[in-house]
Design a protein that fits this description.
This protein has 373 residues and is α/β, with parallel strands linked by helices. The chain is built from 14 helices and 13 strands. It has helices spanning 2-18, 30-39, 41-48, 52-55, 83-92, 105-113, 115-121, 164-174, 194-197, 200-204, 213-223, 241-247, 312-319, 350-361, and strands at residues 73-77, 97-102, 129-133, 149-155, 175-188, 211-212, 229-236, 252-260, 278-283, 293-295, 301-303, 308-311, 327-330. The strands form 3 sheets. Strands 1, 2, 3, 4, 5, 6, 7 and 8 form an 8-stranded mixed beta sheet that branches. Strands 12-9-13 form a 3-stranded antiparallel beta sheet. The two termini are 33 Å apart.
């Protein structure tokens, strides 16, 4: 417990007093920001409307705003100065709401300073966003209620938390049944050494607290989440010689995952929707900004009006989520040989994903570029 408190205090000091802007990070995030305009232009536009003083203190490592946020109640874990909160507050609209929680007073103070500015800029009559100073390890203690959020987002924060399982369990508790955890974070292919885990700078930069990707799967399964699905990932290159000496041969990457808190009783009998483990799903095309297609994960995109054969696990995940009404489901006829090109992977190694991406697309853009020495 003492070690946990020490780490939290170190991270608070790092992000509250040591860093004054994102340019002070030993790891930059320019490539992540550029990727926004490629896949989700409407998110890029929302982010461009966030006040510069807020964006200057952005320390994220990926994209963590999912489809279907209009009118939703959203929580941002480790909201910092509020960049993602303000961007998503525009997207949820006046009928939605956003809560950001952060343990760093200096960051929360910056966010609170610009609530009125963004309320006026987005044309809302009253604020739809608020910020809470508190710990991701104790959301209930911070005044948040169980089963109260449709979506939880987080941007390169859980790697800064020493007690990952507690954070993820708290997230599970405050999500509504069917709600989604959609977040970006840093992962490694190596179990961290004691020397790395005791390094204050490596903690502040996210390396020391990065989970082995298999550990993440183990924790979420234990808690009761649906199987994590990789939406996107980018490699993180370590160029600094002093970091290399400490981190050794460990590899790191930024991954955006989506996973759900299953609805206790699914509205339909799964077995009646599949033959030989496969069923049909059709996207209705009714999600704002995603009318033509819905990206389930990095390997499966469902086109509007196109009946697609998918494994039972995809059907189960969709039916257990808040997206269940966005799709229609159909059982293959008895005796039909249905071809399904998507294979469900219970454990998908993000580093294997990156390797295959590089084989297909050539050299990858790195999510973070180490600055200086």
């Amino acid at each position: 417990m003492a070690q946990t408190s020490s780490i939290l205090e170190n991270v608070k000091e790092y992000y509250g007093k040591v860093l004054e802007s994102s340019s002070d990070l030993k790891t930059g995030n320019e490539v992540c920001n550029k990727n926004l305009s490629v896949e989700n232009k409407y998110i890029c536009r929302a982010i461009s409307e966030v006040h510069q003083a807020v964006s200057a203190k952005y320390y994220g490592c990926g994209l963590c705003i999912p489809p279907g946020v209009e009118g939703a109640c959203i929580l941002d874990l480790g909201s910092g100065s509020g960049r993602d909160c303000f961007a998503v507050s525009k997207l949820v609209g006046p009928d939605g709401s956003v809560v950001g929680i952060d343990m760093t007073k200096e960051q929360v103070d910056v966010a609170n300073t610009y609530i009125e500015y963004h309320t006026e800029r987005f044309g809302f009559k009253q604020p739809n966003v608020k910020f809470v100073e508190g710990y991701c390890e104790d959301l209930i203690g911070a005044g948040l209620k169980k089963d109260s959020f449709d979506i939880i987002i987080s941007n390169c924060v859980i790697n800064l938390c020493p007690e990952k399982e507690i954070v993820l369990r708290e997230a599970f508790n405050v999500l509504k049944p069917g709600g989604e955890l959609y977040f970006s974070d840093m992962y490694t292919d190596t179990l961290q050494s004691d020397a790395v885990r005791e390094d204050k700078v490596l903690w502040g930069e996210g390396f020391a607290g990065s989970l082995h990707w298999k550990q993440f799967h183990d924790i979420t399964k234990k808690i009761g989440f649906s199987s994590p699905c990789i939406v996107s990932c980018s490699p993180i290159r370590v160029d600094r010689e002093d970091f290399k000496k400490k981190l050794g041969e460990a590899k790191y990457c930024s991954v955006t995952y989506r996973l759900f808190k299953p609805i206790p009783t699914q509205p339909k009998d799964i077995d009646s929707l599949v033959q030989n483990g496969v069923g049909f799903v059709t996207y209705k095309g009714q999600i704002l900004y995603h009318e033509e297609s819905f990206k389930f994960d990095h390997r499966l995109t469902l086109q509007k009006g196109v009946k697609t054969a998918v494994p039972v696990q995809v059907i189960s995940t969709l039916l257990s989520s808040s997206f269940s009404e966005e799709f229609s489901f159909e059982t293959p006829a008895a005796g039909d040989k249905v071809s399904c090109c998507y294979t469900w992977r219970v454990l998908e190694d993000p580093f294997d994903v990156l390797k295959k991406m590089e084989e297909i697309d050539g050299p990858l853009k790195y999510c973070q570029k180490i600055k200086g020495t």
